[in-house]
Design goal:
Oligomer: heterodimer
Shape of chain A: globular
Number of helices of chain B: 16
Distance between the termini of chain A: 36 Å
Order of helices and strands of chain B: HHHHHHHHHHEEEEEHHHHEHEEHEE
Radius of gyration of chain B: 45 Å
Structural class of chain A: alpha/beta
Distance between the termini of chain B: 60 Å
Shape of chain B: rod-shaped
Number of helices of chain A: 10
Radius of gyration of chain A: 17 Å
Helix content of chain B: 55-70%
Number of strands of chain A: 6
Strand content of chain B: 5-15%
Helix content of chain A: 40-55%
Number of strands of chain B: 10
Largest sheet of chain A: 6 strands, parallel
Strand order of the largest sheet of chain B: 3-2-1-5-4
Chain lengths: ~220, ~575
């Protein structure tokens, strides 16, 4: 898998590149800001662009804007946005345009090489990634009136969070040490309890759950 | 220089004497209408001298007074022409019109008493004197006034060289032509001055100049009448009557100033009333009859002037429209009045008003001083908040670019090290996990810290997304109602955000609420932030640093903060924050 890494911090950029090379990724280019990133993507047409959300010149949300631009002009390039802060607003903004080949991950996750490489591969294959912290905040957020989430069992809640993180039934099963079939049953129950239309399509499933959680 | 009492009295006695002598000469003279002429003469002459004496005494620095007296005496001189005694008649006839030139001079010099820089006016006065003395003398050299033949009745013209009707007519024509021209010019100048004068000046000179203009109009008509063989009949008494109004008009003008004196008395009364219309400035403007009056107060510590609200005030440059009078009290400067220069014409009034209002001005000065200090205090509070906010942003940036990056990079190295573990996974694995967890906790703490310092999303996306994000971690269900989408000034947004975040933190900590409603609206250039919960209430805004800090921060940028927290009935925090 070919990747381009964009981060204004040299230590992080180089470190990330090294990490990825160790994990058998091909690092096709490195960029220190959004403009360089767009140039690299244009030139290298990588499978995945890993983008720091906060970059020069304004150190605000350049990463998000660059991601939007890349999605518009190079639909074949998947994007994984790295953020130092848990910002559900930005994560939802990123995934609102469609969850195919898009991810939002906390930078902390680089400490777990396994987790990081899985996420890069997943967006590279057209899947979606949403950081567990963000999902936890969305699920755990206080709600007014009757909260349908209260009707979920502990296990169903776990499954819901993993769906929101963008994981497939197979991955969820592996994670929770249950069969795929059991996962399917849980999913059916969750969707019924939350009064969501069931869907076999992973992306629609994620979108439906996120829409529900952010409402 | 101020005339002494003796000088004034002597002048008065001389005028009485001169009037009596002239009246006697007229009554014993040749005129058929001696009695009315004598009476009109006395009234006019004494009026001029009398009003001149009053003006001289009241405004010694102004030459108008002495000029009026001079006009009175030249008037008596002209009366001599009605005498039967030839020498007296000759002198009177020669000086007949000197009086008119003096009056013209008086009008042109009004109200300052000098002709100033106007070359035209100076020339007019000089030409006038040449006309009524020089050309008149030439005329008299040829005119026998119908009394040239030996044995004729009446006084003789002693200046007569040889009677010559043609030369006499030419000289008289020149004299009259010049006289009419000068009269018309004087009227034009007077009317022009009246039209271009500022309102107080206009009022000050209106009556005098009207009478003067009327006089010269009458004179011009009379001269034209005489030159064309008197188609309107004898106009002389009529002209005299108009002349007689001039000193009265002047006296009326003086009375106006006298009335202004009572304005000072009214001012004193008004100053006693607590809420005079328009405040102190209004009272002063009425007393001085200058609606454009401005008052500036002196701040000794700052060496500058401020207005009544304590805002900096720049004194205008001295000009024809504005001039400045400084008010002192016990030797210290307290204020400056910025007014129409015409007020300078009556120093007495300005001085009395300043003296009468000095105490009130001193009080107002102290208030303005206080307001200026408050304004300074407010500005310095705002600066402190601004500096603190800038410092917060700087710290947040440093945390983000420095410490956080390094921790992440350590985490990365850790991940790399873990991937290199081959055989020792069993023993080293748990240690690496431990380190990773500690790192994650440290990063989370840092995140928490920098979120509290300055949320990036506020700057990047504005109030609504920032508040929405805040609501995710509020711990209590939040109903968010932000009724506008446009961005507000940075300072306003930051303060509004701070109000909501602090309030939500308080709700989570103390209120035991089941719901919070956050409302952000906009009215009249102010953002209205309201955070209402359904908790236990009883919050005390004077205790604890949280609410105090909120109030301080809101008020520091000119906003208003209020707290309603009746026990058992929830808490409402409300802040009005200026959008500027």
């Amino acid at each position: 898998v070919r990747v381009v890494v964009a981060d204004d911090s040299v230590i992080l950029r180089e470190g990330l590149a090294r990490l990825l090379v160790e994990a058998d990724f091909e690092v096709a280019g490195q960029a220190a800001n959004a403009r360089e990133l767009l140039e690299q993507v244009e030139a290298e047409q990588p499978d995945v662009a890993i983008v720091d959300i906060r970059m020069p010149p304004t150190h605000t949300d350049e990463g998000l804007q660059a991601a939007r631009e890349i999605r518009a002009e190079h639909p074949g390039v998947a994007i994984l946005v790295l953020s130092q802060d848990v910002q559900p607003e930005y994560a939802l903004e990123l995934l609102a345009d469609g969850t195919e080949g898009v991810g939002y991950l906390l930078k902390d996750r680089v400490s777990d090489l396994q987790e990081l490489t899985t996420s890069v591969r997943r967006v590279g294959e057209g899947g979606s990634v949403l950081d567990p912290s963000v999902v936890a905040q969305l699920v755990g957020r206080p709600r007014r009136g009757d909260n349908p989430l209260d009707e979920l069992t502990e296990r169903e809640r776990e499954v819901l969070e993993l769906i929101a993180q963008g994981r497939s039934n197979k991955a969820i099963g592996e994670r929770l040490f249950i069969t795929e079939h059991t996962v399917e049953k849980h999913v059916k129950n969750i969707f019924a309890k939350l009064r969501l239309a069931p869907s076999d399509d992973d992306h629609r499933r994620v979108l439906a759950v996120l829409t529900f959680l952010s409402a | 220089m101020a005339p002494t009492r003796a000088v004034l009295w002597t002048t008065a006695v001389l005028a009485l004497g001169a009037g009596a002598v002239v009246a006697a000469l007229v009554l014993t003279g040749y005129s058929d209408e001696a009695v009315p002429l004598a009476l009109l003469g006395l009234v006019s002459g004494w009026s001029f001298v009398g009003s001149g004496l009053v003006a001289w005494a009241r405004r010694p620095e102004n030459r108008i007074g002495p000029m009026l007296i001079l006009a009175g005496f030249t008037w008596f001189l002209a009366g001599l022409q009605f005498s039967d005694i030839s020498a007296v008649f000759t002198a009177g006839a020669l000086r007949e019109n000197v009086f008119i030139v003096v009056v013209a001079w008086l009008l042109l010099a009004f109200p300052n008493g000098d002709l100033g820089r106007s070359r035209l006016c100076r020339t007019m006065v000089v030409v006038g004197f040449i006309d009524v003395i020089g050309v008149a003398a030439v005329h008299m050299s040829f005119d026998d006034f119908g009394g040239g033949s030996p044995g004729a009745e009446g006084p003789q013209n002693l200046l007569l060289v040889g009677a010559d009707d043609t030369f006499a007519a030419i000289a008289l024509g020149v004299q009259r032509g010049v006289g009419i021209t000068l009269s018309v010019l004087t009227i034009v100048i007077v009317v022009y001055r009246w039209l271009t004068a500022s309102p107080p000046m206009r009022r000050a000179i209106a009556t005098v100049l009207a009478a003067g203009a009327a006089t010269f109009a009458a004179l011009a008509v009379s001269s034209a009448n005489d030159a064309t063989g008197q188609p309107l009949g004898e106009l002389q008494p009529f002209v005299w009557l108009v002349f007689a109004t001039v000193p009265w008009a002047f006296l009326a003008g003086l009375m106006r100033v006298r009335l202004a004196r009572t304005a000072v008395a009214e001012l004193v009364v008004e100053l006693g009333a607590p809420d005079a219309q328009g405040g102190l400035r209004g009272a002063l403007a009425r007393a001085l009859d200058d609606p454009s009056l401005e008052v500036a107060y002196w701040l000794p510590g700052h060496e500058r002037y401020v207005d009544v609200d304590g805002r900096a005030f720049e004194l205008p440059v001295e000009s024809e429209e504005r001039t400045v009078t400084f008010v002192e009290r016990e030797g210290r400067r307290i204020a400056a009045l910025i007014h129409d220069p015409a007020l300078r014409e009556d120093h007495g009034l300005l001085d009395s008003v300043c003296a009468a209002a000095a105490l009130a001005l001193e009080n107002a000065r102290l208030q303005a001083d206080l307001k200026a200090r408050l304004e300074e205090l407010r500005a310095s509070r705002a600066r402190i908040v601004e500096a603190a906010e800038a410092e917060r942003q700087r710290i947040e940036r440093n945390l983000h670019d420095g410490t956080q990056q390094r921790l992440v990079s350590i985490a990365m190295t850790l991940g790399l090290a873990e991937s290199k573990l081959a055989g020792d996974r069993e023993t080293v694995g748990p240690i690496v996990d431990e380190a990773r967890e500690a790192l994650a906790a440290a990063l989370e703490e840092l995140r928490e810290l920098s979120r509290g310092i300055h949320p990036g999303i506020l700057r990047e996306r504005g109030l609504r997304p920032a508040l929405r994000q805040l609501a995710y971690r509020a711990g209590v269900p939040v109903e968010l109602d932000v009724v506008f989408d446009d961005r507000l000034p940075e300072q306003t947004e930051a303060t509004a955000y701070y109000v909501v975040s602090e309030s939500l933190a308080n709700v989570a900590k103390y209120a035991h609420a089941t719901a919070v409603r956050v409302k952000v609206g906009q009215t009249d250039g102010r953002a209205i932030v309201e955070v209402a919960d359904d908790g236990v209430g009883g919050a005390d805004g004077t205790r604890g640093t949280g609410l105090r800090g909120l109030r301080d921060r809101v008020e520091a940028i000119g906003g208003q903060f209020s707290l309603a927290s009746p026990p058992g009935r929830g808490t409402i925090v409300r802040a009005e924050i200026p959008c500027a």
